[in-house]
Design a protein that fits this description.
mainly alpha; single chain; elongated; 136 residues; 77% helix
């Protein structure tokens, strides 16, 4: 039986990989066009365009959240309690994609507020899942 939680876990990983692939594709283009030397990249893209800096941060945000989200979803799946995570899992993933997308688009006050709201949704869901899974 396939659970929504499993699909969302894979979706979260896929989204993280998509951001990485886009970033590395753009970095490759910069190297091939001799805009930057291959050994000149910084982990945060600080020496690149503002978009590339936001892309690095959006990818890092995914990596920072993935262990918590993955652990909660895996615990729910292996303890046969995915009924706890399944209903909100798509909302968590949607909030993650919104957070990343807004991060890529802008650093305006409105964008930062929207990005924080999407992040807060994810935290609230994770806190609820933690509480519910601890209840046994």
């Amino acid at each position: 039986m396939t659970h929504v939680s499993l699909t969302v876990l894979l979706g979260f990983v896929a989204w993280t990989l998509i951001l990485l692939i886009v970033m590395e594709g753009l970095r490759t283009r910069l190297v091939l066009t001799r805009t930057i030397e291959s050994n000149a990249f910084t982990p945060d893209n600080a020496n690149l365009s503002p978009f590339m800096q936001r892309l690095a941060r959006a990818h890092a945000n995914c990596l920072e959240s993935l262990p918590v989200v993955a652990t909660l979803l895996i615990v729910a799946l292996i303890t046969d309690r995915a009924a706890i995570t399944d209903p909100l899992a798509p909302w968590l993933l949607a909030a993650r994609v919104v957070q990343s997308g807004v991060h890529l688009a802008s650093l305006s006050v409105l964008a930062v507020n929207l990005r924080f709201t999407a992040f807060a949704v994810q935290v609230a869901i994770a806190v609820y899942w933690t509480w519910a899974l601890l209840q046994g």
